[in-house]
Task: structure prediction
Amino acid sequence: MAYQDLREWLSALEHAGELKRIKAEVDPILEITEITDRVSKWGLRGSHGPGGPALLFENVKGYPGSKVLINQFGSERRMQMALDVDSPDEIADRIKYFMDVKSPEGLLDKIKEVKSGPCKEVIKHENFSLLDFPILQCWPQDGGRFITLPSVVTKDPKKGKRNVGTYRMHVYDERSTGMHWQRQKQGAEHYRERMRRAAAHGKVQPVTAALDMMARSGGGSRIAEGKQVAGRMPVAVAIGTDPAVAFSSIVPAPPDIDEFVIAGFLRQKPVELVKCETVDIEVPATSEIVLEGYVQLDELRPEGPFGDHTGFYSMEDLYPVFHVTCITHRKSPIYSTTIVGKPPMEDAWMGKAVERIFLPLMRLTIPEIVDVNLPIEGIFHNLMIVSIKKSYPGQARKVMNGIWAMGQAMFTKCILVVDEDVNVQDIGEVTLKVLNNIDPERDIQFTLGPVDSLDHASRLPDFGSKMGVDATRKWPSEGFTRPWPDEITMDPETEERVSKRWKEFGLE
Result:
């Protein structure tokens, strides 16, 4: 079923026994993180498996009447509930269908514009503050409070195409935040395109020069203060959306695909969108909270540190600043958030669902891929295990380079390629086969290229090395002339005979 909004989703979670209400007073500064982290890793005694339940904090210190929802996607079962599937592989099947739809009409019926919606029950053009919401400080060394589960909506200034992404937002004060869209994200590309246009009209310095000046200035809030007049980039932020919209915001979609359309496909019902009050952007009409505003093109500010999904803090760096001009919200809005840190946490289950969606997209250009596994402990961009149907010499290396050329997969630090008969979801089997099958000097290749901005080990920010391992069986046509040994297995007749007599042995 399609969940109309966050509240209908909450009701479904509670009905399924997947929601725990916390009535004791809890501080949004660190305490909610500590509670959620324990639940994410250990669950609740006797009632939940890995990931524990979703948590609804109903008594947040300093915020009477406010509620905080967290860990809503924090288990395989809840991810399946959120997307209305019985198996993660059904998500991939739905995406295959999505990619097969060719007519514009088949895409447009997944979104629907409406005149108003619950997100406009309260409209504040003045006398508003971000600090009115129970925004968390997650970890002790964080630079402050961070909005961690926003759907940030921007538009391509050339084509007008929407992008919806999840970028953390460091709250600076009542009306401004950092906008942590990493350089390779689509929101950042929309920002750069507006910078290029402003530079072409003499309104702001070229992007690289501006960034260099900002770095040399020691982190002041304006580039060439008083000398340049730059434009503004309109931005809207939806918080507390239905689960399909929230999930679609993190999906690595192709640049020309509207994430709201993806959400409509996943929920199998159109996403209702409503115009913002002060910017020309549409947001989900049933959002709990909407922040409207702009990013000033000639302004950067230090953002961070932030305890990240790598298990380490990402360091302070310069990012654009989002200025809030209007806030709309539902009456008694529910603040939806998440935390990240050492896995496993809520983002692990979201990432595994993305993995299933990513598989058919990869097969479009690399059809020999059989399956992929992005292990949770590899935090998704540090390790990818790929099985392939090998048909010619050197194919494993072709696959590695193909993956590094695909969108967000370019950040993959290590790629292991195995034969199709290896179950990539079984880490024990992968370890056995990979370590037995490789001659390290022959089968490991290194390359240089873009890396994730959160990679603290790379030689430079955003640039470093990556490793590919060809762990497939080697062929004579690849220069391997020795015989390849058979894997040890028992013959089927003996297996069947022993199985039939198992009770005789008294081993049950």
